[in-house]
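Training component of the fellowship. As part of building independent skills, the fellow (R.M.) carried out the full modelling exercise for a liganded target. The chosen ligand was 2-phosphoglyceric acid. The inputs are recorded below so that the supervisory panel can assess the work.
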Amino acid sequence: MTLITSVRLRRILDSRGNPTVEADVLTESGGFGRAAAPSGASTGEYEAIELPPNEAISAARKHAVPRLVGEVHAGNQREVDGALRAADGTDSFSEIGANSAVAISMAAAKAGADVLGAPLYQHLGGTFRGDNFPIPLGNVVGGGEHAKDATHIQEFLAAPVGAPSVAEAVFANAEVHAKAADILDDRGISAAKGDEGAWAPAVDDAEAFDIMAEAVDAVADDRGFEIKFGLDMAGAELFEDGEYHYGDETKSTDEQIDYVAGLVDDYDLAYVEDPLDEDDYEGFAELTDRVGDKTLICGDDLFVTNVERLQEGIDTDAANSILIKPNQIGTLTDAFDAIELATEHGYDSVISHRSGETEDTTIAHLAVATDAPFIKTGTVQGERTAKLNELIRIAEDAV
Ligand SMILES: O=C(O)[C@@H](CO)OP(=O)(O)O
Ligand SMILES: [Mg+2]
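Fellow's submitted model of the complex:
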């Protein structure tokens, strides 16, 4: 029934206006799935390789499509992803591109779900999934690699930890985003938007903390549930020649650890992603030892959704949370394996978008299917709301 009979690949636009890979997968019994690859700007050094879409498409047509069509079943994700790995032959998908691989992997999953007539989250997670929903971490203010002349810290994220439902959480994050605009306005600060729709004002990081604290408190009061905030520091982007650079100011690794530990206490941060460089397991471990009982210390560029890098983190107590980006590793199978390993060791998984996105909603389904406690997929802007609105629909059983 789910034998793959056709794989089509094309270039479409992503939210930055760059071309990306979209895949259509068809099965013997007429099941259809379509998915597109996202793309990062602050990419980790150890991520799977994204090729220029033209190259990724022609290489996948040559090497992968013949191993899929008439050969594997869309309903058997490990078989599909195994064929993609075999077709590529490298650890990093440098032959067919992680962008082709992830688009095909996700499209096959959707085709498998279509044959069953089941929503994707149920196909991926089984019938007992769909009652628990992730808390959405929403990017409200930011800069770094996602916006010029804005904050050094890449993302200030609203975290509606007390929201009674996923819909309430999604609406609360949008309100925090709107409240931050009001506060900026009151202070006479104009702000463009960064790649993910967050405000990108030319303020220093200290002022951004102030604005976030005020915005989340105001919306929490109004809504009547707890809203905290967190950060993606994208530490690897700040780190150069052995120091962390904040414009003209620099911090040594020890100073950076003290700084982040102080921020966790001062602002009661719910979440800190990539506080340190992507090679610094030791620094991560020290910070986790100091504040890991009060906040999530999450590895993005540190782990790159890779089970070997995650295992090293587990062995060294480097963090207590992992960011999961399917395109960082290339297939849904690999992403699932990372989530399972994380869960087994008490790490919280945060399923994540990329700064370059499409209307694809796979990550919303992945989060529900795996019972992930968090999802990071923006606050406003169509390619972000596509996932947030899909979560609301899943909660209502309306997908
Ligand atoms: O660093 C991150 O977590 C992501 C998404 O917010 O950014 P990018 O996709 O640019 O790597
Ligand atoms: Mg990150």
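The panel noted the following from the submitted structure. Residues 232, 234, 273-274, 300 surround magnesium ion (ligand 2) (CB under 6 Å). The first strand starts at residue 4 and ends at 13.
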